[in-house]
Amino acid sequence: MESLLSVRGLTKSFKGNQVLCGIGFDVIPGEVLCILGPNGAGKSTTINILTATLAADKGEIRFGGKPITGNLRAYKKQLGIVPQDIAPVVVGRPVYVIYLSHGNSIAKTLYI
């Protein structure tokens, strides 16, 4: 099955401190992806890059097989996010919930 979301080689640094170092993963329709880690691990940075609110230094994100940089407006129309401060609590911690739709139906949910 083709990936709905494909991430390759994401890197991001802030003031010389590398936060992301070559992150990559694929999400297929119907799959749930969890990104877990301690404070400072790069979870929020990854979410901000996935939602196109922050640019990666390097790497590529593909949605539906196409690079998101080709049409950010169309990508963002298919994306929804529930911010951490109003998201549900799972195992005593709030989580980000990202909904990716492909066509007219919700094809993927990411709990971060």
In short:
The protein contains two helices and ten strands; from the N terminus they run βββαββαβββββ.
Structure commentary:
The chain is mainly beta. It has a single domain (5-111), classed as Rossmann fold (3-Layer(aba) Sandwich). It is 12% helix and 46% strand. It is built from two helices and ten strands. It has a four-stranded antiparallel sheet, covered by helices on one side. It has a four-stranded mixed sheet with strand order 3-10-9-6. It has a two-stranded antiparallel sheet with strand order 7-8. A hairpin with a 2-residue loop joins β4 and β5 (66-67).
Q: Main attributes?
A:
12% helix, four-stranded antiparallel β-sheet, Rossmann fold, four-stranded mixed β-sheet, mainly beta
Q: Give me the oligomer status.
A: single chain
User: Total domains, how many?
Assistant: 1
User: What is the fold named in CATH at topology level?
Assistant: Rossmann fold
Query: Helices and strands, in N-to-C order?
Result: EEEHEEHEEEEE
Mean pLDDT: 77
Overall outline: globular
How are the SSEs ordered, and which strands pair?
Elements: E1 5-14, E2 17-27, E3 32-33, H1 43-50, E4 58-63, E5 66-67, H2 72-77, E6 79-82, E7 89-90, E8 93-94, E9 97-102, E10 105-111
Parallel strand pairs: 3-10
Antiparallel strand pairs: 1-2, 1-4, 4-5, 6-9, 7-8, 9-10
